[in-house]
Write a structure and sequence with these properties.
By secondary structure, this protein is mainly alpha-helical. 79% of the residues lie in helices and 0% in strands.
């Protein structure tokens, strides 16, 4: 049976992987926009770019916060 710390670590790692997948989907969406037509309005594109920035910010702190949380959990 896994300890609380192992379960938390597993959950944090799985969630980080899902967040990375979502970030990659946003990147792919932006890279694959057709050039010959305006497929997104400027407002939509700005919002998507903000979402991309939020994912980047979240992932940049994820590892640090994971270590911090794990250090507070006893086995």
């Amino acid at each position: 049976m896994a300890t609380k710390k192992e379960e938390l670590s597993r959950w944090r790692n799985l969630t980080k992987g899902r967040l990375i997948q979502h970030q990659n989907s946003i990147n792919n969406l932006l890279m694959n926009l057709p050039n010959d037509c305006k497929s997104l309005s400027n407002d939509e594109k700005e919002i998507i770019l903000k979402i991309k920035e939020c994912y980047r910010d979240l992932l940049s702190t994820w590892s640090y916060r994971s270590k911090e949380l794990l250090s507070k959990v006893s086995n």
